[in-house]
Each structure stands twice: as C-alpha cells, then as structure tokens.
Amino acid sequence: MRTLLTWLLVPLVLATAVGALLLYPFGHEQRTGAQIGLHQKPVDAVVTGVQDGVCGENCTAVTVRMSDGDASGQSVTIPNLRGAGAPRYQTGDEVVLSYSGSRPQAAESYQIVDFQRGWSLVLLAVLFAAAVLLLGRWKGLAALGALLLSFVVLVLFVLPAILAGENPLMVAVVGAGLIMFVVLYLSHGVSARTSTAVLGTLVSLVLIGVLGAVFSWAAQLTGLDEDTINLVTVLGTDIDTRGLLLAGTIIGALGVLDDVTVTQTSAVWELRRANDRLTWRELFAAGSRIGRDHMSSVVNTLVMAYAGAALPLLLAISLAGRSMGEILTAQQIAQEIVRTLVGSIGLVAAVPVTTALAALVAVRQEVAPAAAPDPEPEPEPEPEPVKRAKPATEPAPERAVRPARARIEGDLYGYDPDKGPWVRPSGRAARRAASERPVPPARRRSSGSP
C-alpha cells in the first residue's frame, strides 16, 4: 500500500513543481505604482495638534510632524473631514500620510490615509507564536514554519503570476498544491497517514474547482465587484475575473480542507491502533461517525467566515429597500453564495473520501499497539517497629518447695492411721459400715430472703 501511495503522489508532486516553473513569471518586470499612474507615496508622521472648526464647520485641522520622506522633521497642517464615519485623531497618534510627490513643503501635497499599526501587529504575532509553541512544542514550531512558507508561496508565486497575466485558476491550483504538500508534510511528517490526508485534500480541491467553474458559468458570475474593477482599472490589462473568483474559492477552502482530512486520517489510525481486528468496513463506519460531527461544525465555520467578510455589503444592500430574492441574486452576494456552497460541498465530500482512503491504507498497515499506561508504583511496605529489648531485671527469688502430701484414697470414715494401711472393705462390709455411719445434717438452702 505504501508503494501505491508513492506511485500516486510522486507524479502529482512533479506536476505541481513543473506547473510552478511554467507559471512563474521569469523575466517579467512588474510595473511600479508610479509607472501605472499611482503617484502617491506613504509617509509616516505623528499628530502634534488637533483644532476643531478652524477650517470649517465639518472640518478638523490636524497638525502632523513627518518622520520620513522628503520633508522629514517638518510639520504641516492638514484639513480633515469631521463627521459620521470619519476617523478622529488625537495628539500623539502615529499616522500614515499619502504624498503626491510634488512640493514637499506644501500641506496640499499630503493627506491622512491611515494609522500606523505595525507594533500592535508584531505584538499579536509574538503572542500567537508563543501560544503555538507553548502548546505544540516541536509540532508547533513545524506548524509555524509551514505557515510562513504558505505566505511565501502566496506572496512570491501566486500574486506575481496573476499580476503577470497568467490564468488565475491555474495559478491557484498550482499554488494550493505547493501549500498543501509543504504544510502537511512539514507539520505532520512523511508517512502513510500524511500521504492519505494529501490524497483526500487533492480530491476535494478538484471537486471544488470543477463545481466552482460549472456554477460560475451557470449563474453568469463575472467576478467584477468593486475591488476587482479598481484592480483592472489600475493595471490596464485584462484579467480573467471569473478565474480570479474561482482562485479565491480554492485558496479559501484549502485551510479548512487540511483540517478535515488530517482529522479524519488521524481518527481512522487511532481506531485501528485501539482495535487491530477491525475490518475496512468497520473502520470506515466508525470514522464516518466521527466525521459527521466534525463536518457540521466545519461547514458552519466556512459559512460564517464568508458572511463576516461580506457583512458591510449585506448591510448596505439591505438599506436599499430590495427584496430578499433581489439581495441574494445580486452579483456581489451571489458570488459569495457560490463560494460558500461550493466550498461546503468540497468539505462534505472530503469526509467520506478521506475516511475511505484512510481505512483502505490503515487496514493494511502494521500499526503499533497503543502503549500501555505505566503501572502505578506499589506502596512501599511500612517499616516494622523495632522491638526494644526488655531491661534486664533481677531474677525472682525461688519459692520454697513444699513437701508433697501423701495421697489418701478410699473411704476416710472410720480410718485410723495407727491401725496400719488402709484396705478397701469388701462389698458386704462396706454396705454395713455405710448403714452405721451417721447421716450429716442437711444444709439449709438460701431463699434469697433475710
């Protein structure tokens, strides 16, 4: 079975590597923001003063001192709108200015666009890494390394390839394959269990890609939401926006798929270890029962993630007075529905597919039995009390030996020792002597009364 897994996975790994080499934009020089018409440059500054009503009724004059840029160290006063939805600034706030690139001394060349939040994000990242390392130890370190490599693949491969004009769907498939192989094998090691989880993830990703393409075409989704339109306008080149929509669906479902497939594989292996007499059908049935509980929570997680991302859009559309049917079938909402339902179908399919693969592999594996718990140490015997020697005492004085008394047998009445030794009388003489013997007086019984 291990040989079969190798024959299945090695071609997939090679195909992923070849696809990454073919899609990577070697020699392509990505145009900078200035070359595509974005002349704004970020400049860090610190708020040194805030005055309301100086520049108008709904305006606040914010004085900032620049920390870098062409006018570093100098201060300018920038008018800023005041009202609902507008940020409020206070003295000491660290902000980011947008500089147009001309007249660095003029306040008109600057605009406050954001807050500086680098230190808070760094602190949060440190806390996250500490929590993972504290709980997972070496496994946690491997998980952090896999997470870092996932960002590397996204930033250095997926984004440049799409910006260079490559098919977003193909780039997403290859990028998801790279992330999957790197993350799973680095986090869980090279083993039959991990290879089974990889196969289950691949099958589910293919299903998600096929269903996404079919229903994007059937629902006539273009992928042209506000952000995508701005991107196409800035780049000035054609991008397959529907493919970009499908790419987001695949990459968004990848993380949850890894969770499902690894959990199902581990569950089947532990069942096999607990009872090595289970058949393939019994392993599959038991693993499926575990997967049903996991599946409901995972699907709800994916739905809530997409709903949370689209929450401002939902609020804006609900204020337009449109019916529920019109809201759900609008372009921006419909594409989120397709993403959610297609990803959920892939997650649901991952449970039986991965469980079946894991049962087939595990039933043919020599799984080491679970280690028996260490026996509890026997209580140490209590020490026996030390017997103390009795103090030596003086020997008791010897008692005076009394002379043995002569034993007298027979009837003592009428016996006179002076007449010689006593001889038992004959029967007739004894009866005569007994009749002549005086009868002793009867004893008085006590009645208990005085």
Question: What order do the helices and strands come in, and which of them pair?
Answer:
Elements: H1 2-23, E1 41-52, E2 59-66, E3 75-81, E4 94-99, E5 110-115, H2 118-136, H3 138-163, H4 168-188, H5 192-218, H6 226-235, H7 241-274, H8 280-309, H9 311-318, H10 324-328, H11 331-362, H12 427-436
Antiparallel strand pairs: 1-2, 1-4, 2-3, 4-5
Fold and architecture overview:
Helices cover 54% and strands 9% of the residues. The protein is elongated. The N and C termini lie far apart (111 Å). The C terminus is likely disordered. It is an alpha+beta fold. The chain is built from 12 helices and 5 strands. Helix 2 crosses helix 3. Strands 3-2-1-4-5 form a 5-stranded antiparallel beta sheet, with no helix packed on it.
